[in-house]
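User: Quick sanity check before I run a bigger batch. Here is a single chain. Can you write out its predicted 3D structure?
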Amino acid sequence: MKKAPLIKAILSALQRVHQGAIEAAQRAYDTATDEANEAENKYDTLGLEASYLAQGQSRRVIECEADLIAFKKLKPLTFNDQAEVKIGALVCIEDEHADGLLIFISPVAGGLKITHDAKEVSLVTPVSPLGQSLMAHFVGDEIDVSIGSEKKHYQIISIA
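Assistant: Done. Predicted structure follows.
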């Protein structure tokens, strides 16, 4: 899988997430400021609740903007099978059942999944449990990841 088109696809996905956050913030603002939602008595809290939602959605827009800026600053690096995992690496790992996963080590947007070249790629940040376990490892290394009470075992198959 070529990384330049993958990075463009990730950037496009981040832009869609950002646009969705903008639209959600606008809907929440419209609801909060709608005259129909003015409180008629002290128990009528729809307008107040909508204003809290609008505030949270506005924070989400700012977070998405920061993600876009940080991702745009990512310099595409070339990796080979002797390179260690670091930010910008596309890592293929397999679990004990030989089920493969494609992981892109990203500075932001951990948990985002995209489909590229008919394959699912998950963005993982270095501070996540899986990201921490992968960082500074090499092809052939085996890692263990604890997520909650579940422990998973993976082998690094390739780094691109």
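Residues 3-72 form one domain.

User: Great, the batch can go ahead then.
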